[in-house]
Design goal:
Largest sheet of chain B: none
Number of helices of chain B: 8
Helix content of chain B: 55-70%
Oligomer: heterodimer
Largest interface: A-B, 73 and 60 residues
Mean pLDDT of chain A: 90
Radius of gyration of chain B: 16 Å
Order of helices and strands of chain A: HHHHHHH
Strand content of chain B: under 5%
Distance between the termini of chain B: 13 Å
Shape of chain A: extended
Mean pLDDT of chain B: 89
């Protein structure tokens, strides 16, 4: 299955997903609660060293965070031009910390581990009608069908190219949706036929 | 949540991911336009409010969990914590509102009505959450955040037109909203 997580194991892989998520949430809250330049400087330095400590591959990492870095640079430049270097630092340190820590998490945590962690996080919400098992099942179903839909869209594009319709998004989207809806109905019937009623 | 709700949500999350593979015409140089945010309008206008919002919730959760589903093969929880996090949440609300409006207009649905629903839900709601979030996180004024976001509106309008035609055609070919 394609995912961003590295197959090579680093020390960050060994930390449970729940712990990493909690740490990220805590750091995310901290950077927006403090205005202290020294604390923010320390946090952004830590966030920058973390990917280095795990030897995360530079190019894929950069590809993930480049658009965010461009935006951060533009925002910092905007604050500098309007004569507010302190705001320029606050904004870029805050966003930089969050983006780098989140990337470190994403590169070292399997999607399956994240889904399991999400199921556990949702457990207390049972009392308001959220069923974590159903949520997990729906996510697993979507993960299974993403490659199926990728293949389907490639097939349809090839067929429409043969008909000379390669420029038409409509000619690709319509058959894609009709086939998906038909597949959804078949799938729901197949699931029901195996005795799963969602409970 | 019935089995049908779960299956439709999962498959439309997968459709939204697959739409990211379709390149669209760039309206402004340097602003990449993919068909992906079309998923918001299509999920809402084809599945209705509840299932449409669920589909985008599933898509968002999987991208946050680390699947490279966003344009350019990006993903991970950072997308939702950074300056553009509001747009990601706006997708879920946008699908819900598009679906809610289409459900209200279902019996007399035409391309224009579907277009209005896609604009209000798929564009209006997305920016309603996206712009204040960007302004707050980036410490810029709402007006500046608004102007900066307008670069994407021409592309969004093209998607709304396309989604409206598709929604009406699907209503004839394979209606979902009133079937169940």
């Amino acid at each position: 299955m394609f995912e961003i997580c590295l197959t090579r194991i680093t020390w960050l892989h060994r930390i449970p997903a729940g712990v990493k998520l909690f740490a990220l949430a805590a750091a995310g809250a901290a950077v927006f609660l403090t205005d202290d330049v020294r604390i923010l400087g320390g946090l952004v330095a830590f966030a920058a060293l973390l990917p280095l400590s795990a030897w995360l591959p530079a190019r894929p990492l950069f590809r993930q965070i480049a658009p965010a870095l461009v935006l951060i640079a533009a925002l910092a430049a905007f604050h500098l031009v309007t004569g507010d270097p302190r705001d320029a630092f606050l904004v870029s340190a805050r966003l930089g910390t969050v983006i780098l820590l989140a990337a470190a998490l994403t590169f070292t945590t399997r999607v399956s581990a994240m889904v399991d962690a999400l199921e556990r996080v949702l457990t207390p919400l049972k009392c308001i009608g959220v069923d974590p098992a159903k949520a997990g099942f729906t996510l697993a179903l979507a993960i299974r069908f993403i490659p199926v839909l990728f293949t389907m869209i490639a097939e349809i594009r090839e067929a429409q190219r043969a008909r000379g319709l390669e420029g038409s998004v409509f000619a690709v989207v319509m058959p894609l949706l009709v086939r998906t809806l038909r597949m959804a109905d078949d799938l729901a019937e197949a699931i029901a036929a195996r005795g799963y009623d969602g409970n | 949540m019935s089995v049908k709700d779960m299956v439709y949500a999962a498959l439309f999350a997968a459709v939204t991911a697959a739409l990211g593979l379709l390149p669209m015409i760039p309206v402004l140089p340097g602003v990449p336009i993919t068909a992906q945010s079309l998923g918001v309008m299509l999920a809402g206008s084809i599945l209705g409010a509840k299932r449409g919002a669920l589909a985008l919730l599933v898509f968002t959760a999987l991208a946050a969990a680390g699947l490279p589903l966003y344009a350019g093969g990006r993903g991970g929880i950072g997308l939702f914590l950074g300056p553009t996090g509001g747009y990601a949440l706006g997708y879920i609300l946008g699908a819900f509102v598009t679906g809610w409006l289409v459900e209200r207009m279902w019996s007399g649905l035409n391309t224009f009505k579907a277009f209005v629903a896609c604009i209000v839900g798929g564009i209006g709601m997305v920016y309603l959450l996206g712009i204040p979030w960007l302004a707050a996180v980036a410490k810029i004024s709402l007006a500046k955040a608004f102007i900066g976001s307008m670069a994407f509106v021409p592309g969004d309008l093209i998607k709304a037109i396309l989604a409206a035609f598709v929604a009406v055609a699907i209503k004839k070919a394979y209606p979902i909203i009133k079937k169940n």
